[in-house]
Amino acid sequence: MYTKETEKECNIETIEERMKDIATRREILHNMVQKQQRLSQEIYDALDKCVNNFDKDNGKLKSMVAHSRPKESLDNTKRQKTERKDSTPASSLEFLVDPSAIEEENPLEPKYCTCRRVSSGMMVECENEDCPIEWFHFECVGLTKETQPEVWYCKACAANMKN
Known about the structure:
Layout: H1 4-9, H2 12-68, H3 74-81, H4 90-94, H5 99-105, E1 123-125, E2 135-137, H6 138-141, H7 155-162
Antiparallel strand pairs: 1-2
């Protein structure tokens, strides 16, 4: 049924006005999307800058720690690598406290090895200075005093060296 309303809706001027309104709203939405994309990029760039600064500072800290270690004789260094991280021989604590009990008592104590336990017993250090784990329990990597090599790399670092 054709009415005055239908005629008004089909009027060319009305249609042109609606098209202009749609074009204006589309432009507003387009500008809003561009602003959102620009803000998202700014946030990403700021976060990326923070992460890069953290990585640099972390590298400097690792370097400072590595350089602050006392220089010792080669024999003493190799002996130390088979002892606990804090240089306390394993035998002095090994029979007094179960390592899992230490872990429960002090959750702030650092975790080592692929097993993510505290330092205990005989341990070996990965020779890769950038190794994220550094220290490993002999039993976790299948070593004994007799089978410990002069230079040792963990599986992950050895695999990365091959690539």
